[in-house]
Amino acid sequence: MFIISCWNIWGLNGPQKQKNVQFWAQKNNLDIFGILETKITAANITSVQATLAPPYWQFYSNINSNPTCRILVGWNPHKLQLICLHSSPQWLTCEATHASLPHPIKITFIYGHNTPAERHALWHYITRESSLNTCIPWLVMGDFNAIMQTGDRIGGNIHWPRHQDDFVTCISQSALLQVPYTGIKYSWHNGQHGCNTIQKKLDWVFDNSCLFSSWPATNATFEPRSISDHSAMIIRLRRPNQHSHSPFKFLNIWTERSDFLTTVASSWQAPVIGNPMFQFTTKLRRLKSVLRKIHLQFTNNITDRVARSKTTWEDAQFYLDAHPTSDNAKIIERSSAAQYLQLCKEEESYFKQKSRIQWLQLGDKNTSFFHKSLLHRQVRNVIHNLQDDNGTLVHDPEDIGKLTSIYFENLLTATHPTLNTDITDIFPNTITEDYPLRTLTATGLPWNARVADIITAGQWDFPRDVPTLNSCWNSITFLPNPNYEDNCEWKGQTSGVFSIKSAWELLRDKRPVNNMHQLLWFKGHIPRQSFILWLAGLERLRTMDRLHSAGIIQNTSCSFCGTYTESHEHLFFECQIPRSVWQMVNARANITWPCMSWKNLLQWASTIYIKKSDVQHTIARLLLSTTVYQLWYERNNRVFNNQHQNTQNIAEAVFQQVRMHITAMEFSSIIPASICDVWGIQQSPTNSSPNF
């Protein structure tokens, strides 16, 4: 679980507020917090940050885009890493990463301007980012200075200006979902009294469907106001419980209990604080717990309950039979009978709901509808007439029976032409599992016969009464040896010993070896990079041309040049930017590659760089896979995150990643001095592992 918070503090220059913020962060064990409307100047921001959290905490702010700091974000680097992606006077977007997170999470802290015209830039930014973050978990939170509907305010101007629709339109177009919350609804209070009091819900927490699917138990809490006119928001990113209960299923038999409506009303009427959707889901969840208790007490293991109740009733009957004049025995017998019949009814209802729900939906109780349904099925299945070979319709039931009998006699007794031997070869010889046993019975041997039963005086004594087995007997060309114990031999290899490798060689579909595997799977390869190179070699990356052919997108322009169609051939390395990166990396690594198409380049490399122990060949393969991986990573950043790097930075990232990987590898031979000079490493004097 990760805890993120946001709070419009309404000024943070005073030491008392700074102390309160520090206490608030410690009390709620926050991992990330965003402070809005801090009013801190650039000269004081460092000193203020030192008072808000422990010394190891780190901070981002939008002080560079505004005279005073409007948004200040702090995070605990011991729990996660945070990178600032975008900032402006109205927003600050970060990317949070952690080893336990399957994907990075984007978090946007919002502090909207007070005037509608100034907020247009904010609505445009949210709409644009939503289209880029469809596959990335995204959390949007803060003071939007806007409301969604008239019910989000109390007091003040009752009119609804047209500009207030901008916020609603933005959230709708962005496909953002409001995070379920508890606590204060009207997060802002103007501090006035009486009829001058105005309350509004200006602070909101939204997420996209990707975050909701990854963290379905996420919820928010709006705390009561304290040192600010705004409520603090605390968001808890929770994953679903891995050890969840079995799925809940409503049983119709519960509705027939006399206390059902009272139980439901008692659970439902208990108050819940929060927005309407949160109230509804909380009440449903609470009601399920109540109904589960009813199930455990009355309808769980219904079949066993019926069996035990029947035994109790039978015992009561025997007791009454032994004490016919006892009033107590009569009461016990009648009570046991009533309980047994009630449980039988509940059992019938339970199994009907599992197998014949359509009848229960109609409210049927095995009365007229049930019998009419059976009658309808019987009438529908009656054969009213048949047509003979002459085209005459037969209606009489006896004639229909005779015609049916004649038809099946002709069908089952007719002679059929012999199948072609080529066709019969496709059918297995073994008709049933018992067929070999029947063949064994024909020899006169028992079904549990052993090999010793067909050995007499050290010679084979095969039964000769079954001609079909003669070929099998004749195939045995060796004599039995009674001096040695029998043993099993595996024909998959000459040693006669079974191994998984030999079984695999017998079963697998053998195909010519693809030389490209030497570029992908070699000692020291980086798995994720080799995987991307493998997909690129098969042309299975989701490039724009493939997405267009699948009908997913319309624009096929390359994300690097924006001119040509993005394909594998264009991306590796016909496009100017990828080609420049490729040339810069190879020039710096002092490796020469021919100028040819993508497919031809892979074929050439798979025949040239094939030596397993050659350091230069290993580096060349690493260079290819790392370059392809980094280019694909940069392409995705441009498409989904609207982030761009120049060619020098991309090439430097490739070079440094390969260099770092080389220093961690162990080579069987000494690395040449020329390679050490190129990569800025030095050979270890004790082994073949390079050092910085």
UniProtKB/TrEMBL annotation:
<dbReference type="GO" id="GO:0003824">
    <property type="term" value="F:catalytic activity"/>
</dbReference>
<dbReference type="InterPro" id="IPR036691">
    <property type="entry name" value="Endo/exonu/phosph_ase_sf"/>
</dbReference>
<dbReference type="Pfam" id="PF13966">
    <property type="entry name" value="zf-RVT"/>
</dbReference>
<dbReference type="Pfam" id="PF03372">
    <property type="entry name" value="Exo_endo_phos"/>
</dbReference>
<dbReference type="InterPro" id="IPR026960">
    <property type="entry name" value="RVT-Znf"/>
</dbReference>
<feature type="domain" description="Reverse transcriptase zinc-binding">
    <location>
        <begin position="498"/>
        <end position="582"/>
    </location>
</feature>
<protein>
    <submittedName>
        <fullName>Uncharacterized protein</fullName>
    </submittedName>
</protein>
<dbReference type="InterPro" id="IPR005135">
    <property type="entry name" value="Endo/exonuclease/phosphatase"/>
</dbReference>
<feature type="domain" description="Endonuclease/exonuclease/phosphatase">
    <location>
        <begin position="7"/>
        <end position="174"/>
    </location>
</feature>
